[in-house]
Specification:
heterodimer; A: about 400 residues; alpha/beta; seven-stranded parallel sheet; four-stranded parallel sheet; B: mainly beta; Archaeosine Trna-guanine Transglycosylase, Chain: A, domain 4; three-stranded mixed sheet; three-stranded antiparallel sheet
Chain lengths: ~400, ~100
């Protein structure tokens, strides 16, 4: 079995990074979070606009995103900074969610800890202690079977369905052969190839959940007054050469391979199964929300397949950009990691392209920095909303 | 000689992803099916599909080794394959049994 060099956690998880996470519990703590992270070696801030005046179902999703991000194996320790105490999602609630992982967690409440400056000092001291504590952990060999490999596609073009997505699916097959798991979200893009997915479902309840998830997303879209299905493929899709909804969706879902689908997950929920294979998750096509939901589910690494090129990068989950468009690679090579356009020129077979994607993913798992990590451009943390602010 | 890309060996269409094709051009395939030689019978814009083989009316159009729809008329090798001669088999309320 192939191995990578990772950080072994108390609960048996293995991280590919060893981040100190400074986590905001609410929009009003973001300033303190940024300052603490700026002061401490290796600290990564995660801020957002949520945590106040959300309806209960929406707040529960926010809580899963925040707690899940902290529980991700790539996080070595967490400092949570909160302001008021929001019913159902206090810093203590988040710490309770994270506790089973066994990782160090500290909470600071700006009001209870004596205001902005005192809270800043207290959180900075926690962060300093944690930064030194987790710095003692060394990478050690771990099985690739420990990897939950997320996959996303965005800014897709003609090349996506033909090169980067199918190569990525083959990379997933290589990981699954090692006992690993692959996760795909964006159920909006499963419309038109539900049958291809349900044919892979490990059991009828997984198949039913896939259908129900797509229908739920479709109903939400229709409720907004937007008919996304009656007009598929869109006029610009057809001008670009896509003929039917089947063709469009197949290009998107080809980013997973042909392995069985073991489980269907709610958004930002961790798998409950460990069997090798594909896992799929309810969620929107919006890239930052989608990859953040997969980080919250525990993905240690993610490939982001792109036609036009992309800058997306999650703060704690290395985000490897893969393109089959040579022009996009040349224009966006500062942030696009892998170019598989050789499949069109005959320089690469699809199988070779899949191996290239897998090899890059495996190197990143052992510590190789993605281009966006080297730039510290942590732009893609976003929380999916399922209710209005009130 | 122009080249079209074929993503799976079972496919009966290829995609003009390297260069646009004009009617009368000699066309070869690459990718997972590199045995095809034909003459384009229509202009094929970048990103559009060309029939690699004759596809009879009603037959399945295959890309990714899977159905992307059915031919609505006889398609000949070298034809442009698009909405004018292929229809979806999904979301077809008009075909539902009563």
């Amino acid at each position: 079995m192939q191995q990578f060099m990772g950080y072994r956690r108390a609960n048996g998880d293995v991280g590919v990074r060893n981040h100190l996470l400074i986590l905001s519990g609410t929009v009003y703590a973001n300033g303190v979070v940024e300052r603490v992270a700026d002061a401490i070696h290796g600290a990564v801030p995660v801020t957002h606009a949520n945590g106040r005046c959300q309806v209960a179902p929406d707040l529960r999703v926010t809580r899963r995103f925040l707690a899940g991000t902290a529980m991700n194996p790539n996080v070595g320790a967490v400092v949570i900074i909160d302001h008021f105490k929001e019913e159902g999602m206090t810093a203590e609630d988040l710490a309770d969610d994270i506790a089973p992982t066994g990782k160090p967690v500290a909470t600071v409440n700006i009001r209870a800890d004596g205001g902005y400056i005192n809270a800043l000092a207290k959180a900075t001291r926690y962060a300093q202690d944690f930064a030194r504590q987790i710095s003692r952990l060394q990478r050690e060999p771990a099985s690739m079977s420990k990897i939950l490999f997320g996959t996303e596609c965005g800014t897709s073009d003609t090349t996506s369905g033909l090169a980067s997505n199918p190569a990525n699916g083959l990379a997933g097959e290589l990981l699954i052969a090692q006992g690993g798991r692959m996760l795909m979200a964006e159920c909006t893009e499963w419309m038109g190839c539900e049958n291809w997915l349900t044919d892979k479902a490990a059991n009828p309840s997984v198949a039913a959940a896939i259908i129900a998830g797509v229908q739920h997303m479709e109903a939400r879209a229709l409720a907004s007054g937007e008919d996304i299905r009656g007009s598929q493929p869109t006029g610009d899709n057809m001008a670009g050469g896509l003929t039917t909804i089947e063709e469009k969706s197949m290009g998107a879902v080809k980013k997973i391979g042909d392995s069985p689908i073991i489980e269907h997950l709610d958004i930002a929920a961790a798998p409950t199964q460990t069997a090798p294979g594909n896992y799929v998750m309810y969620g929107p096509g919006m890239g930052a929300e989608s990859i953040s939901s997969m980080a919250a589910a525990g993905c240690q690494v993610l490939t982001f397949c792109t036609g036009g090129g992309h800058t997306s990068n999650h703060p704690i989950m290395p985000t490897i950009k893969v393109t089959g468009n040579r022009n996009s690679y040349e224009l966006m090579r500062d942030t696009v990691d892998v170019d598989v356009s050789g499949v069109f020129t005959g320089d690469l077979t699809l199988a070779e392209a899949g191996q290239i994607v897998y090899d890059e993913m495996a190197r990143v798992c052992s510590g190789y920095l993605t281009k966006s990590e080297a730039l510290r451009d942590n732009n893609s943390f976003a929380i999916h909303r399922v209710g209005p602010s009130i | 000689m122009k080249t079209v890309f074929v993503v799976y060996a079972d496919d009966n269409v290829g995609t003009a992803v390297l260069e646009p094709i004009s009617a009368g051009d000699s066309v070869a395939s690459n990718g997972e099916r590199s045995d095809i030689q034909l003459t384009a019978r229509a202009d094929i814009a970048y990103g559009h599909k060309i029939a690699l083989l004759d596809i009879a009316a009603g037959a399945t159009v295959l890309k990714y080794g899977l159905s992307i729809g059915s031919a609505t008329r006889d398609i000949r090798a070298g034809d442009h394959v698009h909405t004018h001669n292929v229809e979806s088999n999904r979301g077809r309320g008009d075909l539902a049994e009563s």
